[in-house]
């Protein structure tokens, strides 16, 4: 891809999200989301492999369906309330439709089935953009919708935590594991949205930092499978020592940063007399912790046999191997 | 009185007089008139041998209903479902995680008894009216399989086919319970390892990966297999980066590497236009990880001009 086209697409991604952030009108916010979707499509199909086009097609179908539902809900809201303002979402029916549409956009359970297959077909960089940047605009809208009752968000949140944990249980493909991790974390975020929106932002920002770091670690070691992860100890020893910290932070273990949002969410839920929900969320996140621990175990705590004649990728973009000439 | 639904009769009906201007009234007589073209699209129908008349039987006419077979099938499928369910407790895809971490070699197909032959399908140009023959049997001591036969390049005299002379052996797609498709996940490996004994003929190895679109149905990734002949076994190691994309035998311009996470089947094809008997003995087909092989893809990728 030429630098001009590439930079156009990246700038369009930025413009789309910024447009949604800055808008109070549903139409403009929807347009920002559409710009985002359309800008990432060529980035996903950069390599012409059939898996990439399959992932792009599935992504497009999911996002187009969600966008159409969102636009319909916004139009219906304007019909019922007479206002296109995002903050004036008063009708329960339109509010529910909007929530479900945005849930499909970001990949919340039970509308999450597109996410692992799409992530599997992408490169790690595009997967990173999908997991982090593409969530910003829909999340901004979810944040602004005034919830009528917390039940919908709690149901979506709990289902996502379960689906994210259970789905990633027996995966060996790292991109699919990251997709399920994303689903589980989004579940935590929407769980507390009705009661304390700032906590959602805290959870989201820590999730962004941790996911970015993990994706970048996998990009540095060029690993997409648990087998190649296990032999990455010889490639970048320092990264091998630090990546478990990122993984355990994602798992929510103290004293790492990832523990903070989980702790505060559980505390807030308990304050709202929802101790059962808190217990269920904590228990189901153990599934996610299991596969994070498994990744840490394969990467750091074991040293499977590795052929030292293999290429060391830790020098910036190496083009030679270490075999003697 | 039986009303003859012919075109002139319809045109006498006052309301349909206007329809006389419609050139093709077959869509009106759809359920009554015999069809000149089949109902379903060409891609959806089974293989039609060139020169044979088209079959227009509805799908349910071809199914043979048998209660005992159905009950046995249900029992087998539920048994498979139960095994799959409990295999997930062992680890991903039924293997413990330590195996996923450490595996560097995996034998995917080996021939240790007549039951191994159930996983394979053989075919030759006899299906299109040619004269080749192909047979598959278990070799001596139940240790290998022997693919043998006779190749004949004479095209069938059906007025349509111009070229002929191929023999092929292809693995069947693994199926889970209730005939769901299963895939081979070879993403831990980067090389195909075969132990074969041939007769000096050049074969083509085809790997069929899972596709999404209907137009990709006949996509396969191929590479050459040159057999040495003679009594000695040959260990052939072909990196997956060498496989190139072909569709129905035609090599594509827009090449890309083979994705190893969803492989459906592997096949061997002989089509070297040398008429006569052939033999290929296979001990095992496996995959292995060669750490020293770092090539992603061996061929230049298609770049349009001007580049976009």
From TrEMBL, chain A:
Gene Ontology cellular-component terms listed: mitochondrial inner membrane
Keyword line: Electron transport, Membrane, Mitochondrion, Mitochondrion inner membrane, NAD, Respiratory chain, Translocase, Transmembrane, Transmembrane helix, Transport, Ubiquinone
Protein name: NADH-ubiquinone oxidoreductase chain 2
Domain NADH:quinone oxidoreductase/Mrp antiporter transmembrane: residue ranges: 23-285
A GO molecular-function descriptor: NADH dehydrogenase (ubiquinone) activity
Root EC class: translocase
Species name: Gambusia affinis
The keyword Hydrolase is assigned to this record: no
TM spans (from-to): 6-28, 59-80, 92-111, 151-170, 177-195, 201-221, 233-254, 274-293
Location(s), subcellular: Mitochondrion inner membrane
GO BP terms in the entry: mitochondrial electron transport, NADH to ubiquinone
Membrane topology: Multi-pass membrane protein
Family: Belongs to the complex I subunit 2 family.
NADH dehydrogenase subunit 2 C-terminal domain boundaries: 289-324
Catalysed transformations (reactions): a ubiquinone + NADH + 5 H(+)(in) = a ubiquinol + NAD(+) + 4 H(+)(out)
E.C. number(s) listed in UniProt: 7.1.1.2
Function description: Core subunit of the mitochondrial membrane respiratory chain NADH dehydrogenase (Complex I) which catalyzes electron transfer from NADH through the respiratory chain, using ubiquinone as an electron acceptor. Essential for the catalytic activity and assembly of complex I.
UniProtKB/TrEMBL annotation, chain B:
Pfam families the UniProt entry points to: CIA30 (PF08547)
Major localization listed first in the record, in broad terms: mitochondrion
GO biological process, one term: mitochondrial respiratory chain complex I assembly
GO MF term set: unfolded protein binding
Its job: As part of the MCIA complex, involved in the assembly of the mitochondrial complex I.
Quaternary structure (record): Part of the mitochondrial complex I assembly/MCIA complex that comprises at least the core subunits TMEM126B, NDUFAF1, ECSIT and ACAD9 and complement subunits such as COA1 and TMEM186. Interacts with ECSIT. Interacts with ACAD9. At early stages of complex I assembly, it is found in intermediate subcomplexes that contain different subunits including NDUFB6, NDUFA6, NDUFA9, NDUFS3, NDUFS7, ND1, ND2 and ND3. Interacts with TMEM70 and TMEM242.
Name the UniProt record assigns to this protein: Complex I intermediate-associated protein 30, mitochondrial
Organism from which the protein derives: Gambusia affinis (Western mosquitofish)
């Amino acid at each position: 891809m030429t630098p001009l086209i590439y930079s156009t697409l990246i700038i369009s991604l930025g413009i789309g999200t910024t447009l949604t952030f800055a808008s109070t009108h549903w139409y403009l916010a929807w347009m920002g989301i559409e710009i985002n979707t359309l800008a990432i499509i060529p980035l996903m199909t950069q390599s012409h492999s059939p898996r990439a086009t399959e992932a792009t097609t599935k992504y497009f179908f999911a996002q187009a369906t969600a966008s159409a539902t969102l636009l319909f809900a916004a139009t219906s809201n304007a019909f019922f309330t007479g206002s296109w303002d995002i903050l004036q979402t008063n009708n329960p029916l339109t509010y529910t439709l909007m929530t479900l549409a945005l849930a499909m956009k970001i990949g919340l359970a039970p509308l999450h089935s597109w996410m692992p297959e799409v992530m599997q077909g992408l490169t790690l960089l595009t997967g990173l953009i999908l997991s982090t940047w593409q969530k910003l605009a829909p999340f901004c809208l979810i944040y602004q919708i005034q919830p009528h009752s917390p039940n919908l968000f709690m149901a979506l949140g709990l289902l996502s935590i379960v689906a994210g944990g259970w789905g990633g249980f027996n995966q060996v493909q790292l991109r699919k594991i990251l997709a399920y991790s994303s689903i589980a974390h989004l579940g935590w975020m929407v769980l507390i949205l009705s009661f304390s929106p700032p906590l959602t932002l805290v959870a989201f920002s820590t999730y962004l930092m941790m996911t970015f770091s993990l994706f970048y670690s996998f990009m540095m070691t060029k690993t997409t499978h648990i087998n190649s992860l296990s032999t990455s100890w010889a490639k970048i020893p320092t990264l091998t020592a630090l990546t478990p910290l990122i993984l355990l932070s994602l798992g929510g273990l103290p004293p790492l940063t990832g523990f903070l949002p989980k702790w505060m969410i559980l505390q807030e839920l308990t304050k709202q007399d929802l101790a059962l929900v808190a217990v269920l969320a904590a228990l189901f996140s153990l599934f996610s912790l299991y596969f994070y621990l498994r990744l840490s175990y394969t990467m750091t705590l074991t040293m499977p046999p590795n052929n030292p004649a293999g290429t060391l990728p830790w020098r910036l973009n190496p083009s030679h191997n270490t075999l003697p000439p | 009185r039986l009303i003859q639904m012919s075109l002139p009769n319809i045109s006498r009906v006052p309301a349909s007089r206007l329809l006389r201007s419609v050139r093709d009234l077959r869509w009106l007589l759809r359920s009554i008139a015999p069809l000149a073209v089949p109902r379903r699209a060409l891609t959806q129908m089974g293989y039609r041998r060139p020169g044979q008349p088209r079959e227009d039987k509805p799908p349910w006419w071809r199914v043979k209903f048998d209660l005992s077979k159905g009950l046995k099938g249900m029992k087998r499928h539920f048994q498979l479902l139960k095994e799959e369910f409990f295999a997930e407790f062992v680890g991903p895809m039924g293997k413990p995680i330590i195996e996923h971490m450490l595996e560097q070699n995996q034998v995917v197909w080996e021939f240790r008894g007549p039951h191994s032959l159930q996983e394979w399908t053989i075919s030759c140009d006899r299906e299109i009216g040619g004269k080749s023959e192909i047979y598959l049997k278990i070799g001596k001591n139940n240790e290998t399989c022997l693919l043998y036969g006779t190749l004949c390049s004479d095209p069938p005299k059906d007025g349509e086919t111009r070229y002929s002379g191929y023999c092929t052996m292809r693995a069947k797609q693994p199926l889970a319970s209730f005939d769901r498709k299963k895939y081979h996940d070879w993403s831990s490996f980067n090389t195909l390892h075969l132990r074969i004994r041939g007769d000096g003929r050049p074969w083509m190895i085809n790997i069929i990966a899972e596709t999404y679109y209907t137009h990709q149905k006949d996509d396969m990734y191929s590479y050459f297999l040159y057999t040495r002949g003679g009594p000695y076994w040959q260990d052939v190691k072909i990196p997956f980066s060498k496989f190139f994309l072909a569709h129905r035998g035609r090599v594509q311009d827009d090449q890309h590497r083979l994705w190893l996470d969803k492989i459906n089947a592997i096949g061997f094809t002989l089509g070297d236009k040398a008429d006569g008997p052939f033999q290929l003995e296979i001990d095992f087909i496996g995959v292995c990880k060669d750490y020293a092989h770092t090539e992603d893809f061996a061929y230049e990728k298609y770049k349009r001009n001007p580049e976009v």
